[in-house]
Design goal:
Layout (H helix, E strand, L loop, with lengths): L1 E2 L5 E2 L6 E2 L12 E3 L4 E6 L27 E6 L5 E2 L5 E4 L7 E3 L5 E5 L5 H4 L6 H6 L3 E6 L10 E4 L4 E4 L21 E3 L5 E6 L13 E5 L13 E5 L1 E2 L2 E2 L4 E4 L16 E6 L5 E5 L4 E5 L7
Parallel strand pairs: 3-7
Antiparallel strand pairs: 1-2, 4-5, 5-6, 6-8, 9-10, 10-11, 11-14, 12-13, 15-16, 16-17, 17-20, 18-19, 21-22, 22-23
Length: 298
């Protein structure tokens, strides 16, 4: 069974795109469709930094994963029988883009899960505390043919720039060739895991929310340090740029245990309804919240 582009159910001959890569890390492939019927599919990397998992392993160069992973692919949502291949790659270097949406001007935004294990694999370069703090999670604007840094670099929120990954000769400060990579629009705390994002194009929320991004952070899995996320934040945006720092919009989902398997709820999906209400999905206990704005009358 498969789903046709018009939402009806069909047989195997109605598959829109087949052959998407699976296995390794990030086997789920988020997608979005723009108002021109273009189907964008995000495909995450299958490794942390295109290197073997053991400490001090050098990064592979060339990184063969980039041919079929860690990028955005473009297809036609109104056609069936399309087959995945490297030639449909739209953008590269997105380690794990999960939240995808368009603003009213047609700009294509994506959230980015940063890498992990900097301290564990390179303890002489990164203290445990720095491992907790790096790298920043990102909100980016996706452009055709652009590169977003993986696996060569990561974004350091404190330094405010991309730096070269240690697997490729970095020392935690060196920029090198990654200065040519695309910069994020906004950054967030490390390891929060931005699983979904929607730009607010409704009208029922106050004007301050119009055009900004609601982001569902699934929550940190880091077993050796403080865990963050497990919340929904709002990032104000204007004309394709951040219009201030992000604000925590909703929290308390995890309850008393901010860790996978013990959290009561974990935000994972975001949607905006036709009436402008915000919907928040939890993939831990299967709950959906509906958030509406009610003006206080005095």
């Amino acid at each position: 069974m498969s789903f046709r582009p018009d939402g009806s159910v069909g047989g195997q001959g109605d598959i829109v795109v087949d052959g998407l890569p699976v296995g390794g890390a990030h086997p789920v492939h988020p997608f979005t469709i723009d108002d021109r019927g273009r189907l964008f599919i995000a495909i995450g990397s299958c490794t942390d930094a295109c290197a073997e998992p053991n400490p001090h392993a050098p990064g592979k160069n060339p990184c063969e994963e980039l041919a079929t992973r860690a990028g955005i692919w473009l297809y036609d949502a109104n056609r069936t029988g399309q087959h995945f291949s490297p030639k449909e790659r739209y953008a590269t270097g997105t380690r794990n883009a999960e939240g995808l949406d368009f603003d009213r001007a047609g700009r294509f935004y994506a959230t980015q899960h940063g890498r992990g294990h900097l301290h564990e694999k390179w303890p002489e370069l990164y203290t445990q505390q720095r491992g907790f703090e790096l790298p920043a999670e990102e909100l980016t604007i996706i452009k055709r043919g652009a590169s977003y840094g993986w696996p060569w670099s990561y974004f350091d929120g404190a330094l405010g720039k991309r730096v070269l990954a240690p697997e490729y000769g970095g020392d935690g400060k060196k920029v090198g060739a990654c200065a040519r990579e695309e910069e994020p629009v906004a950054v967030f705390s490390a390891h929060w895991a931005p699983n979904d994002m929607k730009l607010y194009k409704g009208s029922s929320f106050p004007e301050a929310y119009h055009g900004g991004a609601f982001i569902a952070f699934h929550g940190s899995f880091n077993p050796a340090g403080p865990r963050g996320g497990y919340n929904v934040v709002f990032q104000p945006l204007k004309n394709g740029a951040a219009a201030g720092h992000f604000q925590v919009f909703a929290e308390g989902f995890a309850g008393g245990q901010k860790e996978p398997g013990r959290a009561a709820h974990r935000p994972s999906g975001i949607a905006v309804g036709p009436d402008g209400a915000l919907y928040i999905n939890d993939d831990e206990a299967g709950r959906v919240w509906r958030v509406v704005y009610k003006k206080e009358h005095r």
